[in-house]
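In practice, a research group might receive sequence data for several interacting partners and want a quick structural hypothesis before committing to experiments. The following worked case mirrors that situation: the sequences arrive first, and a predicted assembly follows.
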Amino acid sequence: MGTKLVDGSISVDCWERLRAINDTKDILSGKWKVMIIACLASFGKKRYMELQRLLAGIGTKMLSKELQELEINGLITRTVMNTKPITVEYELTRYGHSLKPIIDEMALWGKSHRGKIIDEIAKKE
Amino acid sequence: MGTKLVDGSISVDCWERLRAINDTKDILSGKWKVMIIACLASFGKKRYMELQRLLAGIGTKMLSKELQELEINGLITRTVMNTKPITVEYELTRYGHSLKPIIDEMALWGKSHRGKIIDEIAKKE
DNA sequence: CGGAATCCCTTACGATACTG
DNA sequence: CAGTATCGTAAGGGATTCCG
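A structural hypothesis for the assembly, expressed as tokens:
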């Protein structure tokens, strides 16, 4: 279980770690996926239009596309309700919830980052 | 310090959290930034060409651009060495290292995700 | 060696209109 | 209401060349 080396410099473990990071990055790629997940994590089950309102600025094309990709990856479920006119609910799957640690760390960092920026601006005055 | 409400539905705290997540996402946007940070976190100080070799496939244009953006955001330092021909070293700043928890969670999730995919393929056979 | 400049192409994304 | 279809643009990104 020691560190396996490739061409004397980079360990396999290290490379696999980089690959894992890259996988995650790819799945969360796109302009809105992270925010969609964060919204569903914060607010729970949400309808199409509610998501569109929460994600101010997103159009129907992008919202549909990103939701589909998230569903394909097993991160959210799509449920069509028996109403008229129809309504559709989206919800994080249990697997989708497993992304929560990443989102949480991003929230933490983003918050402190904004604080840092504000401090820097204050110093310049 | 209770939960402040906006239009009776979304709390300010919740909205600020979403904004923080979005900030982080923006700073880590781009095809290579996360990987650059991960590489510098794993391998420490690295030269331009070494990075290019580690990030198999990246071209000089993208590498330069993403490095500059990371530098502007205070996440990495760029040091020109007195050699001939010149060499340049890139390194994570202390602030850059503060992104480590995010990267770590991404590595963790990506690893388990790959495991899950492999399991699913195995079941189908 | 590090990187800027150029060219070119694809994709991502947005706005709008339309449908069950 | 929840999308799909279509169109158009801007940006992202790759390959190559050139320069200090």
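Before designing any experiment, note the following. Chain B has one domain: 12-123. Residues 49 and 85 of chain B are 13 Å apart (CA to CA).
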